[in-house]
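Quick one:
INPUT:
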């Protein structure tokens, strides 16, 4: 039963009780004290009137609203815009002042003022995050303006480990022939790339020591003039050491330099190499079985060792299906049996066979080359080959790994696929066709050597356990930031050290409105556990204007496709609850009249002394 029905039943019972009481009183009272008949009829008739007025006071009857055509002005609306006949022009806070317009603090307030609205027309750049939730459920007409000139999207890297390489992607609009530079916190250029025909670009950098760093993306037009700069937050974090198993059919320089790089990169390395005759050298012997392999996150095995595993390959593949990452590399021109084993894992291996050189890119800027390898002291002597004018002879198998479900992960400067991976249940397996990649370290190309192996291992390694709160960046000062993945209230530490509490609502999300730009720290404390901290970056209110405009534009366009266009909408104007005040005043007057009549001598016989 609904509260409305329950109240109606209670009031009806009250009226019946009042009638019975009135009848019993008149029956038992003396004839001269019972009063006139009209008095009893008025008292009895006012009971249901009183009950009905009280019911409508608590549940006022609905009123049919009239549909209003609303035009909502947002940022970028022309100042010459005027309301058309029969429409209401509303300006949101970011819109310019318009003649004849009605200002409103947000779209939710507008819809409460005009509850009959089922369609709106949006002018300007589009609705911000503050208003898009309120627009759910109504038809939105929006003619999107052309994309703004400059940066329209940018993708900062996720968390990276110290000394690891990372990439920053994005897209430009209206700047053909532009160039994008990535500048490190020391002010040195780490990468320079020409944008593609569609405006997309990818620049790379190298993380240094652990901490919160801010790189800069600089955009230059075809005339080399700087048109825009944007901060790129990079979180460099010492992560839990991934456990790496290296297996080789024989000792060699590849194993030596691979172990040295992996140790410097923070891996917990175990090496097992065969010296022939059943002799194993390296670290403590490792048994190849399911229990032992569960202790590792990723394994690198060359073709000779893989062929020599025999029946133990089933244990390795079982561990891969459980989450272990596996990289199969070539130690030279393989026997046909090794390629057969690659094909058995689901890869297709095409090509003429034999050995082919790897095409390496040339960096002519010596300063750029030195910066990517690491920032030296000001008085350090530059290496003779810092300009990258010398390219080592690095070879690969003249085959191309592929197949259904295969993802290329590494390519050389000529576009040849050097490595590809495919999924096997919860794990991944990759193949690497490079033969002597250690030659990069011998010729000063340690940054490229690290990029190759870091890319391959990060693509297949077992993911780190744990839940990180979701943060959909970028974020701006004064704009709502959604922090999800929380289980209880948390605190946000601002750049100046002050704290703000964020309240978690249903779904594990919390809203936060930053008031300062820079790095913020989301602090969460669980009972019986240490405090957990997750950084996120907030851009200044006037930064990345093109990215912000493109975000609002695309999100508003999606609202317009969620429901039928206004011309197709056939909903009638809704019925909304009316005002209770007229009913309350009428009930109050009726109560006063009923109380006064019951206590007055009107209609009764006069008292005798």
């Amino acid at each position: 039963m609904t509260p409305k029905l329950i109240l109606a039943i209670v009031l009806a019972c009250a009226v019946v009780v009042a009638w019975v009481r009135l009848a019993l009183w008149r029956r038992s009272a003396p004839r001269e004290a019972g009063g006139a008949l009209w008095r009893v009829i008025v008292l009895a008739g006012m009971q249901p009137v009183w009950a009905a007025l009280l019911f409508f006071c608590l549940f006022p009857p609905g009123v049919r609203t009239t549909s209003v055509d609303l035009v909502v002005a947002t940022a970028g609306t022309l100042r010459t815009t005027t309301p058309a006949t029969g429409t209401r022009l509303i300006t949101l806070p970011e819109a310019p002042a318009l003649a004849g317009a009605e200002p409103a603090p947000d779209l939710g307030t507008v819809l409460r003022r005009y509850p009959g609205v089922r369609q709106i027309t949006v002018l300007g750049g589009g609705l911000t995050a503050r208003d898009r939730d309120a627009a759910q459920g109504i038809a939105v007409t929006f003619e999107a303006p052309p994309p703004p000139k400059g940066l329209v999207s940018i993708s900062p890297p996720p968390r990276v480990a110290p000394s690891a390489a990372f990439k920053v992607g994005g897209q430009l609009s209206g700047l053909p022939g532009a160039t994008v530079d990535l500048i490190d916190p020391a002010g040195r250029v780490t990468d320079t790339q020409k944008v593609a025909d569609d405006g997309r670009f990818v620049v790379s950098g190298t993380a240094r020591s652990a901490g919160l760093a801010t790189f800069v993306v600089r955009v230059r037009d075809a005339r080399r003039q700087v048109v825009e700069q944007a901060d790129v937050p990079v979180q460099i974090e010492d992560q839990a050491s991934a456990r790496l198993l290296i297996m080789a059919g024989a000792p060699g320089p590849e194993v030596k330099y691979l172990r040295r790089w992996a140790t410097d990169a923070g891996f917990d390395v175990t090496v097992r190499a065969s010296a022939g005759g059943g002799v194993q050298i390296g670290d403590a012997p490792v048994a190849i079985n399911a229990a032992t392999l569960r202790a590792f996150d990723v394994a690198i095995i060359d073709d000779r060792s893989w062929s020599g595993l025999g029946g133990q390959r089933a244990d390795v593949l079982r561990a891969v299906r459980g989450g272990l990452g596996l990289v199969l590399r070539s130690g030279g021109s393989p026997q046909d049996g090794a390629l057969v084993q690659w094909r058995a894992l689901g890869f297709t291996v095409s090509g003429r066979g034999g050995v082919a050189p790897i095409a390496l890119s040339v960096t002519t800027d010596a300063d750029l080359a030195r910066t990517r390898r690491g920032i030296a002291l000001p008085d350090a002597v530059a290496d003779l080959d810092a300009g990258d004018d010398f390219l080592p002879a690095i070879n690969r198998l003249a085959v191309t790994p592929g197949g259904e479900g295969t993802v290329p992960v590494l390519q050389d400067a000529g576009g040849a696929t050097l490595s590809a991976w495919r999924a096997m249940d919860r794990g991944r397996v990759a193949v690497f066709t490079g033969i002597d990649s250690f030659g990069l370290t011998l010729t000063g190309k340690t940054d490229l050597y690290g990029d190759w192996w870091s890319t391959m291992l990060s693509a297949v390694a077992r993911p780190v356990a744990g839940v990180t709160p979701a943060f959909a960046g970028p974020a701006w000062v004064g704009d709502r930031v959604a922090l999800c993945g929380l289980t209880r209230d948390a605190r946000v530490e601002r750049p100046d050290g002050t704290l703000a509490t964020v309240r978690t609502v249903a779904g594990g999300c919390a809203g936060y409105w930053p008031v300062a730009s820079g790095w913020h720290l989301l602090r969460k404390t669980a009972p019986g556990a240490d405090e957990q901290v997750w950084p996120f970056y907030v851009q200044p209110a006037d930064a990345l204007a093109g990215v912000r405009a493109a975000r609002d534009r695309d999100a508003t366009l999606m609202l317009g496709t969620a429901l039928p266009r206004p011309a197709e909408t056939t909903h009638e104007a809704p019925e909304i609850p009316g005002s209770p005040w007229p009913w309350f005043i009428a009930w109050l007057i009726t109560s006063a009249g009923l109380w006064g009549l019951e206590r007055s001598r009107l209609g009764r016989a006069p008292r005798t002394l």
